[in-house]
Amino acid sequence: MTAPTPARTADLESHHLRRALSLRHLVFMGLAFMAPLAVFDTFGIVSEATGGHVPLAYLTILVAVVLTALAYSQMVRVLPFAGSAYTYSRETIHPAVGFLVGWAATLDYLFLPMINALLSSIYMSVPLPDVPAWVWIATTVVLTTVTNLVGVRLAANANLVLVGAQVVASLAFLFFLIRGIVTSQNGASVTLTPFVLEDGGAGPLLAGASILALSFLGFDAVTTLAEEARHPKRDIPRAILIIVISAGAFFLAITTAMQLLFPDVSALGSIVAASPEIALYVGGAGFQTFFLVCYMCAVLGCGLTQQLSAARLLYAMGRDGVLPKRVFGFVNGKGTPALAVLVVGAVALVAVFLDLSEAASLINFGAFVAFTSVCVSVVVHHVRTGEVRGAKALLLGIILPSLGALVNLALLLSLDGQSKLVGVSWVVIGLIALLVMTRGFRKPLPQIDLRAADE
Questions:
Q1: Residues of 294-323 as b/e, b for ≥16 C-beta within 10 angstroms?
Q2: Which of 13, 50, 293, 439 has the most CB atoms lying inside 10 A of its own CB?
Q3: Where are the domains of the chain?
Q4: For the chain, what is the total number of helices (H) and then of strands (E)?
Q5: How far apart, in whole angstroms, are the C-alpha atoms of residue 43 and residue 262?
Q6: Could you give phi then psi for residue 311, rounded to 5 degrees?
Q7: Residue among 24, 36, 368 nearest 229 (CA)
Q8: How far apart are CA 170 and CA 370, in angstroms?
Q9: pTM for this one?
């Protein structure tokens, strides 16, 4: 391959992220992004939508996630750079497609920190109802922003502690749930009902599964840290599989126990803030307090990683020049895209003016667009390079990613009407911006030659 021109190489080197993350850091940051304790929030919503089949909905989304994780694992070995789905689509399919995928993905990356800030206000209103919601929102955003500005390694080390607190709380929660089932609390008994789908239930099941995609976004976020991992081609694929397998097993165990104990969620006073109520029911006031403390650890850990990953996506697009380079492509002396971090923090503060349902409706569309595009990128890459010889290459390069694209597309179409309307509207805005930047596709999009500069 032709060597990169000095101008191009200098441009890339001037926008350099610091490689400081090990496999351990990547796994814990991915798990922190997913906020394992958030499974208790979506439980009530999905149980109501699926008629008491949350575990089966998790199995359904897990199929899509595993197929997508395999696709991400392949693409990060080929393109170990920041930007995730945006970069993969840009390099393998077309720069214009990459821009639209990245634009769509900003829906989940930008608004997840907002939802996280909203959750902090919802949960802290349980023990401290007199404190205004905006105080908790602002405090959460400021803490995560300052930590991310200090540097990626501090955020990673903080997440080791914060995820550890979630694991302890989750195991305690599972213990109390199992104890409740064994003692027939709330009339609970061991049954396969949560996994048995009634006639005509496929539509609600897919709708519920599409909501649960939020639970698995951590493995996707890890790929945005490719330029800050010490060994990206080795460690990020490993981190992806560890995150998906461990999280999937945890979600299935917790939701099965919860569904057996609470087959009818109408018994809960609040679906959105169900966790504290369930904690009080199964473990008493002491456990509820402990759970709330651990949940705030989850909020901070999740907020740190969500903001960090969103900033890296904006950084990748800014470095290419498809977003304002002086803002989003800027890297400070600590190797941090500082202005991008501040922009994400500012967007998260908009949570003061929204409720949880309004913010949540903006997310899943972008996630499924990104998932589908990565699966398609794998197919395109293998076809273009001719790497489809042999049964294994055909399976991993064509069959499984094609199946993954179809499953993710089906889940995308299963989203509620508001989510699809907001998502399509956002993509149309991106398309208009693309037409302006390219003067009706007569001018190429600006970008850095990542492949050449990496050699």
A1: bbbbbbbbbbbbbbbbbbbbbbbbbbbbbb
A2: 50
A3: 24-454
A4: 20, 0
A5: 10
A6: -65, -35
A7: 24
A8: 29
A9: 0.74
CB 174 within 8 A of CB 254: yes
pLDDT one-digit tens code per residue, 175-209? 998 898 888 887 778 888 888 877 666 778 888 88
pLDDT in tens, 53-76: 899 999 998 988 999 999 998 888
Residue whose pair of structure tokens reads 């989203």 in the numeric block: 415
User: Other CB atoms closer than 10 Å to residue 191's CB: what's the count?
Assistant: 11
Tokens found for residue 110: 């930008």
Give the whole-angstrom CA distance, residue 102 versus residue 98: 6
| Residues with pLDDT less than 50, the chain | 1-14, 452-455
Helices (H), 125-151: 133-150
Question: 371 with 88: CB under 8 angstroms?
Answer: no
Residue 246: burial class (beta carbons within 10 Å; 0-12, 13-18, 19+): middle
Q: What is the pLDDT of residue 1?
A: 39
At the topology level, CATH places domain 24-454 in Amino acid/polyamine transporter I (1.20.1740)
What is the Cα–Cα distance from 166 to 37, expressed in whole angstroms? Answer: 7
User: For residue 187, is it left (φ>0), alpha (ψ between -120 and 50) or beta?
Assistant: left
